Amino acid sequence: MMEKHDLRAAISLAAVFSVRMLGLFMVYPVFAAFARHLAGATPYKIGVALGIYGLSQGVLQMPFGALSDRIGRKVMIVIGLIVFAIGSAVAASASTIDGMIVGRLLQGAGAIGSVVLALVADLTAEKNRTKAMALVGMTIGFSFLVAIVTGPAIAGWVGVAGIFWLMAALALAGIAITTLVVPAPPRRHARPEAATVPGLIGASLRNPELLRLDFGIFALHAMLTASFLVMPALLRGTLAMSSREQWLVYLPVLLVSVAVMVPAIMVAERHGRMKAVLVGSVAALAASQLMLAVGGPNPYVLLAGLVVFFSGFNIMEASLPSLVTKTAPAGSTGTATGIYSSSQFLGIFVGGVVGGWIHQAAGTTAVFLFASAVAIVWLLVAATMRHPALGYHGGRVPATARRSPER
Known about the structure:
- By secondary structure, this protein is mainly alpha-helical.
- The chain has a single domain, classed as Up-down Bundle (Growth Hormone, Chain: A).
- The longest helix is centred in the middle third of the chain and has 55 residues.
- 82% of the residues lie in helices and 0% in strands.
- The C terminus is likely disordered.
- It starts with a helix and ends with a helix.
């Protein structure tokens, strides 16, 4: 059980992360249907608009982290949330697809992900850090579940522009939580391992186990973004459901996926089966995309594919952040989480841009085939990972493990 101070820090920072991600996830199931009515919209530009948020996020994660080492974590979180709120207002007011692209680019420029994770490390004792990171990851996962279900319903009530205004309001709520609730440790107590150290970037990029995790989060969000470019139209065509009604599909699908996720995570953590669960989840993600590509017009295959996809997605989203902090060598947690966060958002960008281009050039089925190809490559990468339960101890890689990796 975490001490009171550590628990407060983890919960408050999870809340900051979640209020920002809630609105971003809400727009996923309704964006493609909405954006096609904007002036100048094409499938490719819709993909750019959905994914370009990830480009500015990915590029700016490391600079935000480095600046937070100099001027303070909370200061950079507040600055990032202000930029995010401005971008949300621009997107809410956009009447053209190009205006939407600018708004989404500005939203992404509020790149606070690595700063939040670094502050979690600053504020928690080493023995509680993995638990705190896991709590943040699970909260983000819960935000995703809530957002995917409520997004279509809220869009039906206030429109997609209203969701963007809601994002701006949630950013202001995040600022209030950061300034009033999140603890602020004295700068002299900031933990060096939480900092983004430029000199350690090369070492992190040469660490094969960290690279596997970075590629994993990149692939996961590339698949998610590409899939949601075509998913609303597939649900509309196969199940005759408008975008406003599609929450009736997402709700039971996500409930089933959570029922799958919880025991899977318990087995992985308690019985040292993390590698088996991770590899199995990636295989499930690949299978789900093939099911959607081949059997999407069949309602039963479509629903089964969604359950399999979200089960795998939720397991990975809850597991990967904790694994990064366990895997990072002592003293390089901040650098490792910065690269990890950048990889996640660059995956959003690639999924949106490549998915949009493929959709315009070859149609819906080709988008799912692209996502399945990404998952298959990820499966090959994950299959060679070292067993996390045996290879890592509190963020340190034993010399024996480095010399004799367990395959």
